[in-house]
């Protein structure tokens, strides 16, 4: 029930390019390049996101994406 309310709000915040935890702009976060045309973005609040360079969108990283080494 709660997930149905929170998920669209988090998606909207990510479309704005902001962290869903602290609200800071993800363009200011630390970035690490990856092989498949994406960047691993780590916010100051330690949340990890994936930035797709082709579409220009952010998404929350899965456990596999968060733990992989470039």
| Number of strand elements | 4
Provide the spatial order of strands within the biggest beta sheet.
Answer: 1-2-3-4
Secondary-structure-based class equals alpha+beta
Distance between the termini: 36 Å
Mean pLDDT: 91
Q: Using only CA atoms, what is the Rg?
A: 12 Å
Low-pLDDT runs: none
Q: Please write the string of helix (H) and strand (E) elements.
A: HEEEEH
Provide the β-strand percentage band. 25-35%
Count of discrete alpha- or pi-helical segments spanning 4 or more residues: 2
Largest beta sheet, briefly? Answer: 4 strands, antiparallel
The share of residues in helices is 25-40%
Quick one: overall form?
A: globular
Task: Give the topology.
Blueprint: H1 2-15, E1 30-33, E2 38-42, E3 48-52, E4 57-60, H2 63-67
Antiparallel strand pairs: 1-2, 2-3, 3-4
Give a short synopsis of this structure.
The protein has 70 residues and is an alpha+beta fold. The chain is 27% helix and 26% strand.
Report on this model:
By secondary structure, the chain is α+β, with helices and mostly antiparallel strands. Helices cover 27% and strands 26% of the residues. The mean pLDDT is 91. The chain has a 4-stranded antiparallel sheet.
Labels describing this entry:
70 residues; 2 helices; 27% helix
């Amino acid at each position: 029930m709660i997930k149905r309310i929170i998920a669209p709000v988090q998606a909207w915040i990510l479309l704005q390019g902001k962290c869903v935890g602290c609200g800071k702009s993800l363009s200011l976060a630390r970035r690490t390049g990856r092989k498949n045309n994406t960047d691993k973005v780590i916010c100051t609040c330690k949340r990890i996101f994936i930035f797709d360079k082709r579409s220009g969108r952010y998404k929350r990283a899965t456990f596999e994406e968060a733990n992989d080494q470039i």
